[in-house]
Amino acid sequence: MKCFLIFLFLFCFNSCFCQFWGDSTILHQDIFYTVEKNPQFGNSVNEYYKFIADNLLIESGTIVSLMKNVVTVKIVVSKSGKIVYAEVTDGINETCNRAVLDLIKKMPSWSPGKQNGKPVSCFVNLPILII
Questions:
Q1: pTM for this prediction
Q2: Tell me, what's the pLDDT at 80?
Q3: How far apart are CA 23 and CA 18, in angstroms?
Q4: Residue 27 CB coordination number (10 Å)
Q5: How open is the CA angle 68-20-34, to the nearest 5 degrees?
Q6: Do 78 and 34 contact (CB within 8 A), yes or no?
Q7: Distance between CA 70 and CA 67 in Å, rounded?
C-alpha cells in the first residue's frame, strides 16, 4: 500500500501541461517533416513578423523571464495551406502559451509545402519571441 501511495503521489505531480489546438487525429495522416519546398507565410518573412507583432496579445501583468522568452509551437500546414493543428512544444507559462495558440488560430492560409511538385501536409516549428 505504501508503494502504491508513493507511486500515486509521484504520478500526480509529474504531469505535463502541453497545450494544443486543432484535431489531433490529423497526426495519424501522412505528414512530412522535410519537404522540397517549405510552407511559407505570405510573400516574405517580414509579413510573418508583422503579423505576429500586430496580433500577439498578452495580458498586462504577465511575467516573462529574461532567460526564457520564446514559445515554440509545432504546427501542421495542410495541403490547402490551412493550419489544422498547433501544439506548444516549449512554452513559458500558461498565459503566454494560450496567447500564442490564439495567434496561430488567427493566421491566414500559408502557401503549402511541396514534395515532387505536389502540395503536401507538413510540420513546421515556429519559435515566437515574446518581449
A1: 0.73
A2: 94
A3: 15
A4: 14
A5: 80
A6: no
A7: 9
